[in-house]
Amino acid sequence: FKQSRKDDIWLVDFYAPWCGHCKKLEPIWNEVGIEMKNMGSPVKVGKMDATSYASLAAEFGVRGYPTIKLLKGDLAYNYRGPRTKDDIIDFAHRVSGALIRPLPSKQMFEHVQRRHRVFFVYVGGESPLKEKYVDAASELIVYSYFFAASEDVVPESVVLREVPAVLVFKDDTYFIYDEFEDGDLESWITRERFQNYLTVDGFLLYELGDTGKLVVIAVIDEKNTSIEHTRLKSVIQEVAQDYKAHFRRDFHFGHMDGNEYINSLLMDELTVPTVVVLNTSNQQYFLLDRQIENASDMVRFIDNILNGTVEAQGGDSILQRLKRIMFDARTTVVSIFKSSPLMGCFLFGLPLGVISIMCYGIYSADTDGGYMEEQYEISKSEMEGQDFMEESREQQEPSDGEPVMPPMHEPKDALEKKKD
């Protein structure tokens, strides 16, 4: 495979047999392989046990499991999107094709509009702007489609102030890149590569961190059909649609099913349904300071965030990092005991048992040492008493005719102590 892989385009899943996420991906991956083969795709689909071929996996930069890569010549593109069949296949088609795809006719342009939710178009001939566009596409092809067209192919509804130009088409409208207002082209494409309203999950939140935008999320239970759950979701959708020109540069909007991931991110228990505004680049968040009644009320809350009236919580300070370490450790321990109590007892009981034995041994050694020292002190005092008695006898002169008292022998232990 290592020697012949450059002859073909490969979509490879690098996995580990013990990895739980890899096991969840396996049936999806099998569906990807079957569908790609049935549609006649030039991309070959495979999987590799990265633990058995660790050196080869390291050569491709595999640092976690599962890792999905598309290998095209000397290039290797990482997939960082949702683990769904359609998203993975779309990634394979996008990256395996041409970097900049031409749009030769209006019919082709309309076909692309119907097929893709977000795509970028360069309009014009050769220019420094096109060079920047090609460079940006080579880095960001893993995220979006890039096309090129002449001015007469662009739909009549599109009004161009000047040519050449770069446009993004999404949310049933378009936006034109302005170097003065938007800065670097690649950064602008990174910020605009998502739709304005999204169904949010953990993977997507991680990707949204690169945009630098805040994310307004309605945290709901999609299985719950109560009025409050559906109302909050519809309010966020209304704001995203009606105020996209006003908030496009600073916010994304969406909803998330369930609060489990948000709880781990915020290190707090959120009541569902609710609205939370996340800054995924620095882990700050904003919670509602009042009840949201309608779209206008939601707009006022977002405006208050922009002008600094609403206080940000969380962040990435040293204190917050320490708090997160403790939270993650506690969460890990609880999850282990919930999933496998016996394994939890073994993992944590064995080290605690060893530490307890060591502590007992240290305590016992200290106690014996104290006893010996005490015994030594007693023997020393006895020796001093015996010396005093000998001196007293030597100072006394015996009377005539009185028998002299025989000398008292020192205890054997005292003599040995004295000798030492």
Give the distance, in angstroms, between the N- and C-terminal Cα atoms: 79 Å
Based on secondary structure, the structural category is: alpha/beta
Q: Give me the Rg, rounded.
A: 38 Å
Secondary structure tally: strands: 15
Fill in the CATH topology of the largest domain: Glutaredoxin
Under CATH at level 1, the class of the largest domain stands as Alpha Beta
* CATH-scheme architecture of the largest domain: 3-Layer(aba) Sandwich
- pLDDT below 50 for ≥5 consecutive residues: which ranges? 367-380, 394-406
- Please provide the ordered H/E string of secondary-structure elements: EHEHEEHEHEHEEEHHEHEHHEHEEHEHHH
- Principal-axes geometry comes out as globular
Task: Please characterize this protein's 3D structure.
- The chain is of the alpha/beta class.
- It has 3 domains: 5-86, Glutaredoxin (3-Layer(aba) Sandwich); 98-193, Glutaredoxin; 195-316, Glutaredoxin (3-Layer(aba) Sandwich).
- It is 48% helix and 18% strand.
- It is built from 15 helices and 15 strands.
- Helix 1 packs across helix 3 (85-96), helix 5 crosses helix 7 and helix 13 (318-339) crosses helix 14 (341-395).
- It starts with 8 loop residues before the first strand and ends with a helix.
- One of its GO terms (molecular function) is protein disulfide isomerase activity.
- Residues 409-420 have a biased composition (Basic and acidic residues).
